[in-house]
Amino acid sequence: MVQHGHEMPDPKPLESLDEWEDHLVDRYPDPASAPKGFKAIDPEKTKEQFRNYEADARPTVREFYRLNHTYQTLEFARNKRADFTQRNRREMTIWEALEFLNTLVDDSDPDTDLSQMDHLLQTSEHIRQDGHPRWFVMTGLIHDLGKILCLFDEPQWAVVGDTFPLGCRFSEKIVFPKFFEANPDSQKPDLQTENGIYEPGCGLDNVTMSWGHDEYLYHVVKDSNLPDAALYMIRYHSFYPWHREEAYTHLTNEKDRENLEWVRKFNPYDLYTKSHQPPDFKQLKPYYDDLIAEFLPGKIRF
Ligand SMILES: [Fe+2]
Ligand SMILES: [Fe+2]
Question: Quick one: pLDDT at residue 222?
């Protein structure tokens, strides 16, 4: 993560993808927003104490955001989307994709952290325990499958991180906004007006988002029988500037505003359901076999 002279920046500044998510919990610690029965984060820690989250961020996290904000340009995101929406990498069932994702072991200390599949099952199990519809449980199970981008050799900054629109001004409400000064789009005046290349109220579906696991998985599953609410959760769960900070509302339309509620409903399950007890995968499998058969049966093109 430390850079010397003209060496290329480290494409993997984070020790694990979880470091980004841990930082999200630092930024949004509000235990009141966690669904009942969840392990609250540290109830002693209030939002006030976390106000200086940028200064408190680990150097690895800071470097991760620096790379993300420097290299996510409109052109980059358009090119990645054009490439990955061909879906010509692999054909896998959902279980195979989960197992494939689980081969992503990038942690310096794997004993203390849960696997990617543990996170997905903990998320979906909490959604199930709260009595939500089956499509909601299914969404919890798959919402981070797009992180297989890492296994296709995409750098961390193009897989995880808060997402944001490209082609218009970068909001000050995006974490570490200073790092956008190094983004080439910042030098293009037509991309830095409030609406940029967009019409006000055009709807997020017409907006090019920064590229990552959310947008990728949306394109993989958008033609399934998952409802719109599920697709919004998948596509915008890392769009913290919108669902937590209320930025970019001038680009949203009625459909976006209706579904924002679902994106917000999903967020606590994603952020606050980590427990150190890994789910009993074997015992849960029959339920999830049925669920997958209902929504995303057979081989899926990734
Ligand atoms: Fe995610
Ligand atoms: Fe997640």
Answer: 98
Ligand with the closest atom to the CA of 126: 2
Q: Which of 156, 181, 145, 148 is nearest to 60 (CA)?
A: 156
Contact between 126 and 273 under an 8 Å Cβ cutoff? The reply is: yes
> What residue segments make up the domains of the chain, in order of their start?
18-301
Q: What is the pTM of this model?
A: 0.90
pLDDT at 233: 98
The Cα–Cα gap between 238 and 216 comes to: 12
Helix or strand or coil: residue 147? helix
What are 8-52's pLDDT values in tens digits?
667 789 988 889 988 998 888 875 555 444 444 454 544 444 456
Distance CA 34, CA 178 (A): 30
Of 103-107, 185-189, 231-235, where does mean pLDDT reach its minimum? 103-107
Ligand 2 midpoint to CA 120 (Å): 7
182 CA → ligand 1 middle, Å: 25
Please say whether the dihedral angle defined by the alpha carbons of residues 241, 243, 244 and 245, taken in this order, is positive or negative.
positive
Mean pLDDT score, 187-199: 98
State the distance from the centre of ligand 1 to the C-alpha of 273, rounded, in angstroms.
13
Q: Cα–Cα distance between 34 and 115 in angstroms, integer?
A: 22
Residue (of 25, 224, 233, 219) closest to 137 by Cα position:
233
Q: Cα separation of 23 and 16, whole Å?
A: 12
Looking at every residue in the chain, the average pLDDT score rounds to 90
Ligand 1 centroid – CA 16 distance (Å): 13
Distance (angstroms) between ligand 2 centre and the Cα of 47 equals: 22
| pLDDT for 38 | 45
Distance between Cα 238 and ligand 2 center (Å): 9
- Look at residue 143 and tell me whether its pLDDT is greater than 90: yes
The alpha carbon of 291 and the centre of ligand 1 are apart by a number of angstroms equal to 20
